[in-house]
Amino acid sequence: MSWAAAWDIQIAAHAAVVAGGPDRLLLVEHPPTITLGRSTRPEDLPVPEADLRARGFEVVRVSRGGSVTYHGPGQLVGYPIVSLRRLGMGLHQYVEALEEALIDAMGEFRVEGYVRPGMTGMWTDQGKVAAIGIHVKAGVTLHGFCLNVSPDLTVYEQFVPCGLSGERVTSLHALGITASVREVQEPVAAHVARVLADAIRA
Length: 202
Known about the structure:
Elements: H1 3-18, E1 24-28, E2 33-36, H2 49-54, E3 58-61, E4 68-71, E5 75-81, H3 84-87, H4 91-107, E6 122-124, E7 127-137, E8 140-148, H5 181-201
Parallel strand pairs: 2-3
Antiparallel strand pairs: 1-5, 2-4, 5-8, 6-7, 7-8
C-alpha cells in the first residue's frame, strides 16, 4: 500500500480513537518510500529528491520526529494509533514499550536485540534492524515503527539512516532469519498488544 493511502487510514483511525473508539494497530508493507521527519538536515539526504523520484522512490515529508527513514518491500511497518491518556503513558514510556515489544518479538526468532542509550529503535550486533518515529496529536499517536525483514539494504546508501552517520543497518535475512514479513507480523502484533495492555494494568 502506498504511504499516502496508509496515511489516510491513519488519519481516519486517529479521529476514531480521539472520539473514544478502540486503539488500533495498522500493519503494512509499502512500495519504495523515503520519509523525511522533522529533524531531517540537508546533509542527511545528499541525493536530490528529484533524482530519488526518478529512481522510483516516493519521497514524503512527514510530521513524525526523527530524520530520514526508508519504507519498502520486505519491511514490516506498524502504525499503532493509541490513546496515551487512556494507557496512562508519556511519550518516552510509549517509545520504550514499542522497543520492548520489538525486542521480545524478535527474540522468538532467536534474534538478540537491544536499545542504545539516548537513541530510539532496536539494534543487533550487526546493526540497526528497527526504527521508531512518533507524532502525538490530541493525546493519540500517529506513525510508528519499521522492522527490516528482507528489504534491499543497498537502499540505505542513498541517505543517512535516521540521521546517524556511520551506523550499520541490517535485516532479519542478513542475520540468517528467513522468515517472511507475514510470518513476523503476528508475533510483533502480539507483543505490541501485550506491552500496551501491561501499561493499562500497571
